[in-house]
Amino acid sequence: MKKHFLSKALALFERFKTQKITAEDLDKAEEKVKDLDGRKEDFQLLLAMCRDTFSGKYKMNKWNLSVIIGTIVYVISPLDAIPDVIPVLGWMDDVTIVGYAISKLSEEIKKYKLFRKEVPVDNF
After folding, report:
1. 110: how many CB neighbours lie within 10 A of its CB?
2. Count: domains in the chain
3. Which of 45, 91, 112, 123 sits a CA distance of 20 to 30 A from 102?
4. Does residue 94 fall inside a structural domain?
């Protein structure tokens, strides 16, 4: 069961990586942060990276950006491995996908954190 859930979640994630994302999608994602338990800060970091990349303040390669987009779309999509309407269980797959993205983006996250230290927040 767990293996089936994970393979379904990863298949959806791969499909979502090719989708376009809008400012409205990012706002929806901000609303979902509260449901992500121990991954709240990680997801907020991914949202910040996406916003900074779209605004031209930060540069990252398309593959890394696609991982972030796939994660955001997965979290806001009603098409999940476990639907979000099932409290707690419905958010577990979202938390899993955020963790997966964080693991795939470890080097990019290090670069982004350095970038944020070098560029004062008031420049944003």
Report:
1. 10
2. 1
3. 123
4. yes
